[in-house]
Amino acid sequence: MRPMKITVQTPNFAPDVKLINYIERKLAKLEQFYDRIIFADVFLKVQKMREKENKVTEILLIIPGGDLIVKKEARSFEQGADECVQSLERQLKKRKQKQRAST
After folding, report:
1. Dist. CA 54–CA 32, nearest whole Å
2. Which residues pair with 77 in a beta bridge?
3. 68: domain range?
4. E strands of 54-99, at which residues?
5. Are 37 and 72 in contact (CB under 8 A)?
6. What is the pLDDT of residues 52-90, one digit of tens each?
7. How many CB atoms lie within 10 A of CB 12?
8. Which residues contact 27 (CB under 8 A, 6 or more apart)?
């Protein structure tokens, strides 16, 4: 299978190349849990400038049979990406188990 396509959208700031690479590496690891991911759409937003946990990371995974979406607020985009990927990993494992049970 070919690797999933990933887009990263940052509506109100210019992201560092290291941040984009970090997110892409994290998302690529999800393919070991579920190899039918078609597309990942990542939204990074900064909101509520006065608060410490003002970085919002939202990841939409396009997969056959229904998409998955996760949204986390954290102190950094890296931390938000880590939390999102952990959540998606759990959801993908559950989906794979359900598919195995139904076949």
Report:
1. 31
2. none
3. 5-102
4. 55-62, 68-74
5. no
6. 779 999 999 999 888 999 999 999 999 999 999 999 999
7. 8
8. 4, 6, 40, 42, 59, 85
Question: Model's pTM, two decimal places?
Answer: 0.90
Report pLDDT for 1. 54
Rounded CA-CA distance 101/71 in Å is 28
* CATH code assigned at 16: 3.30.160.100
Number of independent structural domains in the chain: 1
Tokens matching residue 97: 């188990």
How far is 20 from 99, CA to CA, in rounded Å? 32
pLDDT in tens, 2-24: 678 999 999 888 899 999 999 99
Contact 77, 42 (CB under 8 A): no
Task: Give the pLDDT score at 24.
Answer: 95
- Please state, in angstroms and rounded to a whole number, the distance separating the CA atoms of residues 57 and 21: 15
Q: Rounded to whole angstroms, how far apart are CA atoms 28 and 6?
A: 9
| Alpha carbon distance 17, 6 (integer Å) | 14
